[in-house]
Amino acid sequence: MKFGKTDHPELIDFSLPKDHRDTEVLLKKIDDPDTFTVHIGCAKWNKQDLKNFYPKGTKDELAYYSRQFNCIELNATFYRIFPAETYQKWKEKTPENFIFFPKVIQNVSHLRRLNDQAYPVLESYLEVTSLLEEKLGTIFLQMHNNFSPKDWNRVVYFVENWPKEFRLAMEFRHTDWFNEESVAQELYHLLEENNIANTLVDTAGRRDIMHMRLTNDEAFIRFVGANHKSDYSRLDDWIERLDTWKSMGLKKINFFVHQNMELESPLLSAYFIKQINSKLGCNLKIPNTLIDPPSLF
Q1: What is the β-pairing status of strands 197-198 and 168-171?
Q2: Which of 10, 24, 130, 182 is at 20 to 30 A from 293, Cα to Cα?
Q3: pTM assigned to the model
Q4: Cα 49 from chain centroid?
Q5: What is the mean pLDDT of the chain?
Q6: Tens-digit pLDDT profile for residues 108-138
């Protein structure tokens, strides 16, 4: 992932900001009997991106990947709507507990920018995405860097008309969504009122969008490693914060690991799984080939 890339990660203060004042208020209001769940995975499953992850001779990458991790952040759906049979094939070849978290196609977010022409495309997208059935997790919508609060009315219409049978997370990248107090508060309240997750993106060069404001019972986190030794201490910090949120009432953790240069995302993911198992009392599988991952540095 190139978003937020920096050539000098050693100069970045990676400390997680304090929680937004309303995050604790929100979490303490959650009265949900649902079981606490944790999903951790990468963004893609192909060999080109996951270097040295697949054993020699692996023929079906998804089949192997889905038996090592319990989810995938499905970036492929950002680029095109796949045929119905593709979604059915993905569903059939993955284990019972595997979950897909697909990104909304770019025609909706980047090309049509939530205008009226986006909705026929969205309808087609959801029609085939729903074929994942019980393996469909939270869908996430990522807006373009230059999509600013001047298009607030489009966001309101989109959120209020989103079909509530699908869980949704939204990611905003323009700095004004978070650094103009009145705008930020309106956005947070809109998402909270409609049970939509406010995506947290932790990347080196964009510390300005680290808002730490949850808007429902889900922490939907996209972590971007900087291919630097600090990637591990950053993950440790997330373990501590997630443990705190869990104690406050958080029900769902969905954590996806990227790197600026996708070299060792599985290694970082395996490390994170091992730590979260220990700290939060989870029992997630650590990928077979990475039980004792070597140091990257």
Answers
A1: parallel
A2: 10
A3: 0.94
A4: 17
A5: 93
A6: 999 999 999 999 999 999 999 999 999 999 9
Task: Kindly report, residue by residue over 165-192, the tens digit of the pLDDT.
Answer: 999 999 999 999 999 999 999 999 999 9
* Confidence at 294, pLDDT banded by 50, 70, 90: very low
Kindly state the tokens that stand for 269.
């993911």
Domain extent listing, the chain:
9-290
The angle at the Cα of 221, spanning 261 to 71, to the nearest 5 degrees, equals: 80
For the residues of 87-135, what is the DSSP string, one character each?
Answer: HHHHHHHS-TT-EEEEBPPHIIIIISTTSTTHHHHHHHHHHHHGGGGGG
* Sheet with strand 197-198: strands edge to edge: 139-142, 168-171, 197-198
Residue 58 to residues 63, 72, 89, 118, 245: CA-CA distances in angstroms? 9, 18, 18, 39, 39
Dihedrals phi, psi of 155, to nearest 5 degrees? -65, -45
